[in-house]
Amino acid sequence: MSNQALLKAFKVIDAIALGHRQLKDICIYLDLPKSTVHRILQGLIEARYIREVHGIGLVLGTKMIQLGIRAQQDMPLKEIARPYLHQLAELTLDTVHLGIKDEDEVFYLDKIPGKRQIQMRSQIGDRLPLAGTGLGKALMLDMPKTEWRRLILSQKDLDIDVMMKRMELYSKNNFSYDLEDNDDLVRCVSIPIRNKYGNIIAAISVTSIKEYMSDDRMKELIPIITDYCRKISEQLN
């Protein structure tokens, strides 16, 4: 493959990552002939870098997701975020988590225990369903509603109508809650970390038991966690 052909393939991947889901949209965005883009897409789909989802269009494939996860793990996200996670844990007295998306799961990249002597069962390296945790729901905010529904329905104990309404609220306001969805009496507030393009690359949650997580306190935590996510994003970018 020539350098020009390789660059065009990367541009097609970038276009899809930015939300251009249809062949026509990609051609217009890149100002490339339909035949050229179609040929590139065929190769990318065959190699699992791109896949086509009914009702949505073209999305990043499993190979790209695997590479993305590896890149996120290789980049200094954890090292950059850790001092801010410690500060947030000191400020709130609660357990702080850092997570990234891995397929349909949230991967717990880091955890800073709180000061309240409350043991949270989460561990660094844990993987949990996206729709079953506040951290995971923060990573879902920019997904199409069809993906929300699929992920919620994969959890048999979640009410689809209630959760869809919550996700609409969360998506509009760039936060998410865990309202005892995963563990009884455990609540959390989570905010996504975005890159310079506005894409969600990770999320932070502040977690405690219901006794310390009233509705009012959860609302108060949103701007605090958002500020720390912004600081981490600025360091990464």
UniProtKB/TrEMBL annotation:
InterPro entries reported for this sequence: GAF-like_dom_sf (IPR029016), HTH_MetabolicPath_Reg (IPR050707), Tscrpt_reg_IclR_C (IPR014757), Tscrpt_reg_IclR_N (IPR005471), WH-like_DNA-bd_sf (IPR036388), WH_DNA-bd_sf (IPR036390)
Alphabetical list of Gene3D superfamilies matching this protein: 3.30.450.40, Winged helix-like DNA-binding domain superfamily/Winged helix DNA-binding domain (1.10.10.10)
Source domain of life: Bacteria
Gene Ontology molecular function terms on file: DNA binding; DNA-binding transcription factor activity
IclR-ED domain residues: 63-237
Coiled-coil region: none
Keywords assigned by UniProt, alphabetized: DNA-binding, Transcription, Transcription regulation
KW Membrane (keyword) present: no
GO terms (BP aspect): negative regulation of DNA-templated transcription
Keyword tRNA-binding carried by entry: no
Spans through the membrane: none
Matching PANTHER family: HELIX-TURN-HELIX TRANSCRIPTIONAL REGULATOR, ICLR FAMILY, HTH-TYPE TRANSCRIPTIONAL REPRESSOR ALLR
Protein name: HTH-type transcriptional repressor AllR
Origin species: Vibrio panuliri
